[in-house]
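Support request, please re-run this one:
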Amino acid sequence: MSRSIDYGNLMHEAMRGLIRKVLDDVAERGLPGSHHFFITFDTSHPDAELADWLSDRYPGEMTVVMQHWYEKLDVGDDGFAVTLNFGDAPEPLYIPYDAIKTFVDPSVEFGLRFETQDDEDGTATPGASADILPSTPATKPMPVTDEESDASDGKPAEVVSLDSFRK
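Re-run finished. Output below.
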């Protein structure tokens, strides 16, 4: 048997660790300046926890925004819990790091996309690769959640395509 270094999964682990460190800092000190996050995750992940009405509305994936209103951010080794506002209804979520598909902070043009790769038997292997989004040629606009319309200034949030941040 030949042994090889699994760079894809090592990078996956490192990028998930980066997200954890960022969220740890936010849990301790709050979001600095204009930083905010778009986090897309797999709602069907076995360890993801969300209200039934949310998983029914977003059966495959959902993008949440951490910006003006969030509370009870609790960062753990395998994922994080947070309560977000969906149309004036606070809902607790638990998002495992392995369920995250994209993590974007548009205020500083930073983003990560985690992809899966099908094995020979047709099963998906999470974290086979992770791309830093500004270096990828085509990024589609992300889906929007109800939370984005609940900005503290009363104005609806704007949907932003990541392509608009490319130089």
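The CA atoms of residues 57 and 67 lie 22 Å apart. Residues 7-29 form the longest helix (23 residues).
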